[in-house]
Amino acid sequence: MKKYVFLSIAIVLIYFFQSFFNATGRIGADSLSYFGIASDLPRLETNLFPLGFPVVIEFFHKIFGDYFWASKILNISMVITILLFSYFRKFYFKETVLLFAGKTLFFALNYAASEGLFVFMLYFLIYLFHERFQDRIKPVSFIIFASLLFILLFSVRYSGIYIFLGFGIFLLMMFLKNHFNPLNRDFFKVILWSGSGIFAYLFFNHYIYGSFTGENLRGVPAQYYPVYILRDILGVTNVVDPFVGIKPASNSLVSLSFQVVLMLFDVMLLRYFINLVKRKKTVIDLDFHRLLWIISGVYTITVFASGYFQQIEEMNVRMLAAANFILFFSFLIIYFKNLTSDKVLFRIGCFFLVFLTFYILKMPENYFKSRKQIEPQMSKFEHKKFMFNNEERADISLTTYHLPIINKTFQYQHTNNQKGDIKRAIAGTINPQIKWLKYDTIKDKRQVLYTSEIILK
Q: Which residues cross the membrane (predicted)?
C-alpha cells in the first residue's frame, strides 16, 4: 500500500506543476469560452456550454482573483479530494491511484475545461452505484445523491445526457430480467428524479436563450471526407486504451499508419479485457460492471453519432474521456480481484505517468515568463470586445525531429506552441471579456484585438 501512497503524492505534484511549463498554461480555446461565460455571470449571455463549470470557475475566481489560478486550484482540489476519499473510504484506492496514471485523468485534470469536473462527478456516481449494488447505502440517500449527480453532470456537459441514456438502457435490461425488485425500483426513482431535473434545465435554457443546448450557435457540421471518418473510427477504437491516446493532426500516410497500428493494439487490449472478465466472472459483481460497460458503450456511440449532426471535435481523448475513464476503472477493479501480484501493472502505470508527463512537456516553456510580458500590455486593449488569432497561418513554427535509426528527419507543427495561440490563451485568461473569434467576421475592426498587436519575445 505504501508504494501507492507515494505514487499518489507524486501524482499530486506532477498534476500541480506541469502546466507551469506549458506555453499556454494548458489553456485552450474552449477554456477561454468558459472563462468568458464565467466573467459574464450573473448575466446569461449564451448557452453554447452549460453553466455548471463556469459557475464553479467563477466561484474560485472570486477567491483567487485570476482565471488561470481558479482553474488550477479547482483541478488540483479535485485530484486531492478523489485520492483522499478513496483512501479513507477504502474505495479501490490502488485502482484509483492508477486511474491518475492513465491518459484520461491526466488530460482532464491538467486542462482548463469541463472534462475534469465531469469525470470528478462521474467518479462519485460510480461510487454510489457500487455501494447500492453492495447494499451498503440507504436507498433514500442513494436516490437523492445519484439523481443530483445525474443533473449536475448534464449541467457541466450536455453529453451528460448520454450517461443518463446509458443508465436508462441498463435499467430496461434489468427490468426485463428481474422486473420490479427493490434495486430496480430505486433505479427507476433515480431515472424519474434526474430526468425531471434535466428536463427542467432544458426548459430553462429554451426559456432564457431560445434553444435547448445552444444548437443554433454551433453551425452546420463540417464537410466529411473519408479520411476524417477513418480518423473518427480510429478514435472510437482507442476508447479501450487506458494509456496511449496520441493522435497527430496530420493526415499523412505515416500518421494514419501509426493510428492503425495503435488500433490493432487497442483491439488486442479489448480481447484481453474480455478474457479477463470470463476468468473472473464468478468473483465479481457482474451487474455493476455491466452498468459501467453499457454506459461507456452508449456514451461512445452517441458521441460518435452526434459528430455527424453538429459541429464538434473529432473523436479523441477529450471527446471520449468519460467512456475511457469508466472502462479503465472497470478493468482495474476486475484486474485486482484475487490478484497475487500487482508489480506488472504498477510498473506500467508508473511508466506511463512519466511518459505522459514528458510527452506533454516535450517542448517546455515558462508560462509565467510569457504571461509577465503580456499582462502589462492588456490595459491598453480594455476597449476591445473581440480577439482573433491572425498569426495562425502567417507565423508558423515547425519543430524538426530526427529519427536516428533510419536517419530521417521530419517537421511537425505543435499548435499549442504557436505564438498566436500562446498570446490568445494568455490574453484571454487575463481579460475573458474579450471574446475570442474563430473567424474574423467583425466589420468594425477597431473592436478586434489581433494577436499580432501583442508583443511576445
A: 67-88, 108-130, 137-155, 161-178, 190-209, 252-270, 291-309, 315-337, 344-361
The b/e string for 26-39 (b: 16+ C-beta within 10 A; e otherwise) is bbbebbbbbbbbbb
Alpha carbon distances (Å) from 78 to 115, 117, 398? 12, 8, 35
Nearest Cα residue to 170 out of 187, 192, 151, 146: 187
Distance (Å, rounded) from C-alpha 236 to C-alpha 46?
Answer: 30
- In 10 A of CB 71, how many CB atoms? 29
- pLDDT-derived band of residue 222, with 50, 70 and 90 as boundaries? low
Q: Which of 126, 148, 150, 128 is nearest to 139 (CA)?
A: 128
Q: Which residues, listed in sequence order, are joined to residue 386 by a DSSP beta bridge?
A: 435, 448
Alpha helices in 361-432 (DSSP H): 367-374, 419-430
What is the arithmetic mean of pLDDT over 329-335?
97
Instruction: Give Cα separations from 253 to 257, 265, 345 (angstroms).
Output: 6, 18, 33
Mean pLDDT of all residues in 323-343: 96
Separation of alpha carbons 364 and 21, rounded Å: 5
The residue among 34, 133, 29, 125 whose CA lies nearest residue 75 is: 34
Q: Return the amino acid letter for 261.
A: V
Q: Is 58 exposed, middle or buried (0-12, 13-18, 19+ CB in 10 A)?
A: buried
> Nine-digit cell at 417?
506552441
Question: CB of 314 within 8 A of CB of 74?
Answer: no
> What is the C-alpha separation between 292 and 286, in angstroms, rounded?
10
Q: Which residue has the higher pLDDT, 253 or 290?
A: 290
Give 394's pLDDT tier (boundaries 50, 70, 90): low
User: CA dist 341 to 274, 335, 346, Å?
Assistant: 20, 11, 10
Compute the distance between CA of residue 40 and CA of residue 207 in angstroms, rounded to an integer.
Answer: 19
- Average pLDDT over the chain reads 91
Instruction: Name the 3-class secondary structure at 431.
Output: coil
Residue with cell 464538434: 312
CA distances in angstroms from 414 to 85, 250, 383, listed in the order given? 37, 11, 31
379 secondary structure, DSSP code: G
pLDDT tens digits, one per residue of 40-97: 999 999 999 999 999 999 999 999 999 999 999 999 999 999 999 999 999 999 999 9
Q: What is the mean pLDDT of residues 201-220?
A: 88
CA distance 435 to 428: 7
